[in-house]
Amino acid sequence: MDKATQYFGELSARNGHSEQSVYPKQMQKTKKDLDQATAALIQFQIEHKTGSLESLLRSQESLITNLKSQRDAELARGNVATATSYDQVIARANENYRS
Fold it and tell me: What is the pTM (predicted TM-score) of this model?
């Protein structure tokens, strides 16, 4: 009985460790997908002039802030190419914000 309990404990520990490494990756991908969808929605609203101007400006400012945060996180991870891509998106967002 003691060996069965020990084996069950080892299996449980492995499964818990495996889940801990999978969930952060899933969360990171989901957040990235959500941020991209939010950016696309804000861009659509700006291009088609839907919603109130104040709301659109707040959304655009929030988008730019989030993009900068993601860019900084990519730089911290050493992903310069991804950070450069974020810089390009930020530049486009700033252009739309000013127009």
Answer: 0.51
Annotated domain spans of the chain: 28-98
Q: How far is CA 50 from CA 23, 39, 86, in A?
A: 36, 15, 25
The residue written with tokens 């309990």 in the block is 5
Question: What is the three-class DSSP state of 50?
Answer: coil
List, for residues 33-75, the tens digit of each pLDDT value: 888 888 888 788 878 877 777 787 888 888 889 889 989 998 9
Inter-axis angle of helices 53-77 and 80-98, nearest 10:
160
Whole-Å CA distances, 93 to 28, 41, 81: 22, 12, 19
CA distances from 86 to 20, 25, 45, 72, 77 (A): 28, 20, 21, 9, 14
Give the separation between CA 36 and CA 29, rounded to whole angstroms: 11
